[in-house]
Write a structure and sequence with these properties.
heterotrimer; A alpha/beta (481); B alpha/beta (463); C alpha/beta (252); A: 481 residues; alpha/beta; 10-stranded mixed β-sheet; 6-stranded parallel beta barrel; globular; B: 463 residues; 11-stranded mixed β-sheet; 23% helix; disordered C terminus
Amino acid sequence: MSDSNQILDEVTQSDYKYGFVSNIETETIEKGLNEDVVRLISMKKKEPDWLLDYRLKAFRKWQQMDMPDWAHLKIPPIDFQNIIYYAAPKKKETLTSLEEVDPELIDTFNKLGISLEEQKRLTGVAVDAVIDSVSVKTTFTATLAKYGIIFCSFSEAVQEHPELVRKYLGSVVPYTDNYFGALNSAVFSDGSFCYIPKGVRCPMELSTYFRINAANTGQFERTLIVADEGSYVSYLEGCTAPQRDENQLHAAIVEIIAHKDAEVKYSTVQNWYPGDKEGRGGIYNFVTKRGLCEGANSKISWTQVETGSAITWKYPSCVLKGDNSVGEFYSVAVTNNYQQADTGSKMIHLGKNTRSTIVSKGISAGRSHNSYRGQVKINKNATGARNFSQCDSLLLGDRCGAHTFPYIDTKNASAIVEHEATTSRISDDQLFYCQQRGLDAEKSISLIVNGYAREVLNQLPMEFAVEAQKLLAISLEGSVG
Amino acid sequence: MMENYQNLKQLFDGFFDQYINNETDSPLSLSIRKGAFEDFYRMGFPTNKIEKWRKTKLKDVLDLPYTINTSDRLRTQQQKSIFECEINNLDTDLFSLLNGWYEKSSENLLQGVIVCSIREAEQKYPELFSKYFDRMASDRSNGLIALNSAIYSDGYFVYVPDNVACNRTIQIVNVINATSRIFVNTRNLVIVGKNASLSLVHCDDSLSSFGSFVNNVSEFFVDEGGQLDFYKMQNKDEKATVITHNFVEQQRDTNTHANTITFNGGLIRNDTRVKLAGKGSHADVMGLYLVDREQFVDNQVKIDHAVSDCTSNQLFKGIVDENGRAIFNGHILVQQDAQRTAAYQSNNNIQLTDTASIDTHPFLEIYADDVKCSHGATVGQLDEDALFYMMQRGICERNARMLLMFSFAGQVIDHIKIPAIKNRISELVSRRLKGELSACESCELNCENPDSVMTFEIDMSKI
Amino acid sequence: MLEIKDLHVSIQGKEILKGLNLSVKPGEVHAIMGPNGTGKSTLANVITGRDIYDNISGEIIYKGKNLMEMAIEDRAREGIFLSFQYPVEIPGVSITNFMRAAMDEIYLYRGKKPMSGGEFLKYFNEKKQFVEMTANLANRSVNEGFSGGEKKKNEIFQMAMLNPDLAILDETDSGLDIDALRIVANGVNKLRTPENATIVITHYQRLLDYIVPDFVHVLYGGKIVKTGGKELALELEDKGYEWIKDHADIQL
C-alpha cells in the first residue's frame, strides 16, 4: 500500500508544461461588467444591431440569474467585476497573410505544437487559433472554400455570413439556458464558425486551438457548427493557459446543429492550467456544449479528454429531435491534486428510434474530486428510444473522491435505458501482474489507466489520440495506488 | 414558508397548544417538540425547489383540508377484529396503531422484550428514551421530520435487550380508519441490544377512503452484533399520502435487512437512511413497488459508509402501469477512510405504458479508494423474445406476461428471510399483478374488475 | 397435416421468402437445408406466428385450419412445437413451473382436465429420463446459464413434455458435440409416431445421419429449389451449395 502510494505521488507530481506566458502586445478594456462593457465589446467587433440586442438581452437575463450550486463542486465566490472581458493581441486592421501575425504569437503556437503555417502542417488539420478573446489566424480557409465549407472566426462569420449566424446563434443553447450560458451570450468575444454544405464530407479535420495568455481576463468564446443535410465533419478542440496564481474564468458555448443525415464528431482535449499542487490558480472551466440532431438519421458524437482546469463544469449534450438520430458521449476525465470536475452528458430523446450512448471514465488522484453527472430523458413520443450508459470511476489514492450522479427519466413504454457504473481502484493484482512482467510501477499504472480509458481514446482522431494518451500519462505522473 | 397552508398551520398550532402542552411530556421531549416546531416553521413543507423533492408533488395533497386526531380516547374498536392482515403460519405478536394512536397497553413479552407506545416508553424507560429518541431524526433535513418531532401523536417502541434473540416476529399494523381526512404524525423507536435479534413487520393499511396524510418517522438502533429484519407492506387507498423517514444506525458487526413492498397508495414516499457506524456491519435495503392508475411511489435511500469494512446492498424493482409514476433515488456515500467497503445498488423498472413515468437516480459518492462499488439502473419492458418463447409453448400472452412480471418481482421477494412472510407477499404480489388487489381491497370481491379473473391459477410459489 | 402455398414474406422491405410451397403429411420427416440467410428460420418463425414481419402472403393450412389467423399460443396448443435455434433465457422462471403453466393451458384449450400436481411431477420425471436430463437442470430457471448443449436438450425435453403433432427443429444440431447430438437425435426419434410429423431445419448433413428424413428440400433464394430423398442431403454435402446455385432452375 504505502509503496504504491509513494509511486502514486511521484506520478501525480509532474509539471504543467504549457504554463509559460508569451510577451504579446495586448489590447484590453477596463475590468468590470455592465451594459456599457457589453456595448463596447459589440462596438469593437463592429457588430450589427441585432447581435448587440441579443447580447443585451442575455446580459439582463444573466443579472437576474444565480450561479448554479447543484454541482458537486466547491466554487469560491467569483467577482465578476474583477475580470477583464475583452483582451486581444494588437494587430493590424486586416490580416491578409501570416507575415502580418505577430511573430511572438506564431512562436507561442509553435511552442504549443500548433503550426499556423499551412505548409508545415502534415496532418491536414485546419486550425482556427484563438488567443485570449480573439481568433488570430485560421488556416486552410481557401482550400475549404473550394468545397463550399465555411471555416472562420466567429467575428468574421458575423460580418461575412450574418444570415447563417443569425439563424443558428442561440438556437441550441438559448441565452436563457443557464447562468454561464447567459454570461457568454452577453460578452462572448470570438470563437470559430463552421458551416458544411449539403452532401459535403469535410476533407480534413477542423480544429480550434484556444489559448489564454493575458492575466485577469476571462475567456468567453463561442463555437457554432452547422452541418447541412448529408454532410460530415470532424472537429477538434484543444486548449492551454499559462501558469498563474489567480484563477481565471473560461465560460464558452459550443452549439452544433446536424440536419438530416448529417454527422458531426466533436473531440476535445482540454488541458487548461489546472492550478498548482496546493490548489492555487488554475482555470474555471464552465462550459455549455450542446448539439441538436435536428434532422432524421443525424448523428452527433462528443469525445472529451479532460485533464486540465481547476474546476470543470461541463455537460456536452445531445437533443435527439430527428427520428433515428444518434447521440454519443465518450469522456475521460482526470483530476489530480486539488482539481474538481463535475462533468457528464445529457441525452434528450424526442424523436422515434433515437439512440444514445454514454461512456464515461473518471480517474481521480491526489485530493481531487471527480463527478459524473448525466441525464437521460426519454420523452413520451420517443418510441423505440435506446440508451446505454457506462460510467466507471477509478480512484488513485485515498484522499480523492469519485462520484456518480445519473438521472434517468423515461416516459415511453418502448424505451430501453440501461445504466451501469462501477467504482474501483487499480488492483494490487493487476499491478503485480504488470510488474512481474518487468514493467515499473509507473509504467504499469499508465498502462492500466490507458487500458481503462481505451474505449474513449479509440473515439479520438489519430493525431489527437496519441496526444491524449501522453496527456493522461503526464496528468497522472507520480500517481499510483 | 407556511403562509400557503394557513389551514394546516391552524391545525398544528391548535394541536400543539391544546394537546402537547397539557400532556405529561417530560421536559426533554417538550424541549425537543418546541425546538422542532420552530424548525418546522422556519423550513416549512418540502417544496419542489429542493433537489430531492423536485418530483414529489406534495402541494396537491397539502392543499386539501385535514383534521387532526387530538385524542387517544377514541379507541373503540378492537383492532384484531377489524383488521385482517393474518399471515398464514406466521406466529406474530400483533400490535397496532389506529389513526396515529397506539392501541394496546404495554405488554411484557417473553425474554424481556418490550413493546409499548412511545409515550409510555418515555415515562417508563426514561434512560432508553433519552439516550436514543430523536438522536438521528434531529438532523431535520426537511420540514416534515421537524413537524413529526414537534407534534407526533404516538407510535411504537420496541426494545430487545442484549443477547436476546426475539423468536417471535413482532407485527405492527398502522391503520387509518377515520370518518374524515386526517393528518397523522407517528413516531417509532426500535432498539436492538448487543447480540440481540429482531424481526419486525410493519403494515401500512387504510380501511377508510376519506384520504389521509401519514407523516411517519422511525428510528432504529442496532447495537454491536445485533440483527434486525424489517419488512414493510404498504397497502393504502388511493387518496392516502404516506411519507416515511426511516433512520437506521448500525454498530459493529451488525446486520440489517429492510424490505419495503408497496402494493397500493396515493402518494407514497419512503426515505431510508442507514448509517453504518461500526466496522463489519452489513445493510440490505430493498423494495418492490407495483404502481398503476394515478399512483405515485418514491423511494429514497441513503447508505452512509462512515467506517471501514462494511457492506451494503440496495435492490429496488418496480412495475409501472397506466398513469403511475415511480421514482428511485439511491445514494451510496463512502466516507474517507471507509476502506474495504463493498456497496452495491440496483434499480430495475418495467414501464408498461407511455403515460407511466419512471425516474431513477442511482448516485455514488465515494471518498475512499479501496472500495468496490457498483450500481445499475434499467428501464425497459418485458422481454419480447421471452414472451414469444412462452407463447410458442402454448401459454397465453396474459399469463406469459404475468409469469415474467412475477419472476421480475420475485428477485426482491426471494430475499425475504421469513418463509411465511415470503409466501404471503408472493401471494399478494401475484394477486396484485392480476389486478385483484386494488383500492377497494378491504372488500375482496374484486367487483371492479371481473374480467381479470384468470382462467387458471399458475402456481407461482414454486417459481 | 401442413400445406404451405406460395408463401411470400418480407421484413423491412426485403423479401425473404419468395413463393415457397411445402406439404407435410403425418408420419413424415422433412429436412429443409440451405445456406445461411436463405430464410430457413424465417419459415419456422412464420409457421409458429412470430410477429416481426411486415408482409406475409400466401397460405398456410394446418390440420385444415388457416394458421395465419391464429395466435401464437393457439398454434402451439394445436400441436406445433418449435425447437429454437437460440432458446431465450428467462431468469426467475423455473422449468418446472414454466412447463406446468404450458401444459395446463394446453389441456384446458383441448378441453381436458389439467394434471394434478402429483401426476404432473410423475410425468415430468418420466420425460426427464427420456431425454437423459439431469435432475438439477429442472430446478433452474429456463435456459439461464445453460450451456449450448443443455439448452438444446432442454428444448427436446419440452418437446417430449408437450408431445406435439408437428415439431420444427431449427438448427438443433448447432453448437452440439457428438454425444449431445446423439442424445438429442435419439430423443427426437423416440418421439416419432405415424401420427406426428417433423420438420428438421439444418445447415449440415450430419444431423440427418441420426434423424433420417423422408424428404429433403433445398431452400435457396427464398424458394424450395430442389426436393429429393435422403440421398439428396449426401449429394449436397458432397458437392456443396454452389452446386445448387448452378443447377437450380431459378432466376436470382
